[in-house]
Amino acid sequence: MRRDRRLLGVFRLAIAALEVVALIGNFQYVLGFRLFATANFFSYFTVQSAFAAVVTLAIGAAFALLTPRDPVWLGILRTMVTVYVLVSGIVFAIIVAQASTRDYRMEVPWSDTVLHFIVPALALIAWTVDAIMAVNPRVPWSTVGWVLVFPSIWLVYTLFRGADVGWYPYFFLDEAQVGGPAGVALYCLLVLVIFVSLTAGLVAINRGLWRRARAPRAPRPGTKDRRAPRVESPALQR
């Protein structure tokens, strides 16, 4: 199990390194736009989630390489960040799909492909492997509530900043593009449902795999159950 933990730590580090490369590549890509603004780049939920993923994966790698198990808080944090990068990918896919329905060609550079699709898939694999190993404590159901804290803060910041500078990172946050405040609220409600559903699903999977891994295994037919207590013969009991 110790070797498995080390391999998991190396895998977490590799994902974090790939995330850093993608962030640098994406920043270099957007530098070519005439209306580029550094503050706008760092205001994207995808970018902030990516930074959170890098930090969380690095911390998780250190624990996996140096300790036999992760603390409870790290399991909660890793689950939340995994949800964040997954939601980023889902929202980006919706935006690309909507652009295609409007006959609008949307360029997707390699860095966006890595940030929105490859890294979320790898992060989910790392999270699933961790759940299957069942070395760490179970992820509590309270994570479903905690996962909404950061997106809520980000949403308030984005709406206030957007009203001030006239720019929104995503079309569905701009009242002018979705038919007013009701349209914004409807889209936000949809994203909220995605957040809650994904988190609840991951927590349920984690706890189910944890119970399955920790449950005593039944002996195979024709083999002796080593867990059964040994009964002494009557002669030895006298």
Could you characterize what this model shows?
It is a single chain. The chain has one domain. 72% of the residues lie in helices and 0% in strands. The protein has ten helices and no strands. The two termini are 44 Å apart. Mean pLDDT is 86; it is low at 230-238.
What structural class should be given to the helix and strand makeup? Answer: mainly alpha
Form type = globular
Task: Count the beta strands.
Answer: 0
Rg estimate, integer Å: 23 Å
Mean pLDDT: 86
Q: Major sheet, described briefly?
A: none
SSE run: HHHHHHHHHH
Proportion in helices: over 70%
Number of domains: 1
Uncertain segments of ≥5 residues (pLDDT<50)?
A: 230-238
Number of DSSP helical runs: 10
Report the portion of residues in β strands. under 5%
N-to-C CA distance: 44 Å
